Amino acid sequence: MTDTQNFINRQEIIDTARMLKDKHVRYSLGAKAVPPAIPKELDCSGFVRYCYLAAGIAVPDGSWHQWHVSEPIDKSQLEIADLGFLYDPNKNSEINHIGLYLGDGKWIHCSYSAKGVTVDDGKVFKYFRRFINLSKVPEKHLDASTNPPKWMITVTEKEKQYAVDSIHVLADLGYILNPSVHIKNLYDSPENWAQWVVLANMAKEFGKKQS
Q1: Lower Cβ count inside 10 Å, N or C end of the chain?
Q2: For residue 71, what are the contacts with CB-CB under 8 A and spacing of at least 6?
Q3: How far is CA 192 from the centre of its chain?
Q4: Architecture of domain 3-152
Q5: For the chain, which residues make up each domain, given as ranges?
Q6: pLDDT in tens, 43-93
Q7: Mean pLDDT on 181-204
Q8: What's the alpha-carbon Rg for the chain, to the nearest Å?
């Protein structure tokens, strides 16, 4: 165990996770929030980050970043508030999924398929990890805003590419014009990347726009 683990209140992290479940927080790709505001929606990495922030611990956003600031542990070493991942991002390019160990072989996570925060058995995650080199969050950065400040949002190149591909899909289906303008705006404000993925998925369901 690293020295930075000593100031983590793991029970507080789990208590926050259970509170979000009790509040029926829904899943929404790209949804983020900062305590003490109670969000209506979060995605899986936003859920993990919110729970750690509530305990005063700064962790990055995004499952890719959360993987790369954590270290592998054996299943037998799991403690409450440790991390479970669905994929190894170095081996799989699909959008990853992350959750928190609840104890007694169970996990709590914000799930697309469950449409919100849910508790599952140990079969849901394949990779087990623990955050390293953690730091405390200055109190002045934890306010009542439902939208996290931009300094707390990190967007990977892979996530940007998902958004660029989605913009091209929307253009091909006739839902937007001048995709290059939207791509420029994306790189100016990358924290909004997920909205393009959601819009493209919806557009693919509806099919080509009728003129």
Answers
A1: C
A2: 129, 130, 132
A3: 13
A4: Alpha-Beta Complex (3.90)
A5: 3-152, 157-206
A6: 999 999 999 999 989 888 888 889 989 999 999 999 999 999 998 888 877
A7: 77
A8: 18
Q: What is the C-alpha to C-alpha distance for residues 115 and 88, in angstroms, rounded to an integer?
A: 23
Nearest to residue 4, comparing CAs of 86, 43, 59, 54?
59
Strand 106-111 relative to strand 57-58: parallel, antiparallel, unpaired? unpaired
- Furthest-apart CA atoms within the chain: distance in Å: 62
Using the 8-state DSSP alphabet, how is residue 162 labeled?
A: H
What does the block give as tokens for 133? 């080199």
Strands 127-131 and 83-85: antiparallel
> Quick one: which of 129, 12, 8 has its CA closest to 58?
8
- Residue 156, both tokens: 């990977």
